[in-house]
Request: fold
Amino acid sequence: MCGIAGYLGNLEIPNERIEECLRLMQRRGPDAKGVYRHSYRPGKNVCLLHSRLSIIDLDKRSNQPFKVGFKVLVDNGELYNYLELKSELVAEGQSFETMSDTEVLIRYFDRHGWEGLDWCEVMWAFALYDENSGSLTLSRDRF
Reply:
């Protein structure tokens, strides 16, 4: 399964520490690695890291951190009913750039809010960052 890590706080994490963390996470996801950095305001920094084990949509366009609009997601897991949820969103006029379950998950949250998670058949651990509000939400499955 993929690996995720992150930081939210006053410090700016040096690149060397980020690279070391990604190196340690590589066995969790050897197919790709990604870094997202954002400063919400002076002294408020977020850094999200991801190491990918490619299973669904092997294309690099599905690498994480995955951004749609002002929201950024890193996740470890699988959305089992992503094709069903994607069909629902397409019927509502949504368009997709990937075949990934990650894009479906972030767009489903954007459309239905946190209540949408009740419709997801998923095992997960994720971090969802909102650039507009500076909020970071961490979640893991019920099991």
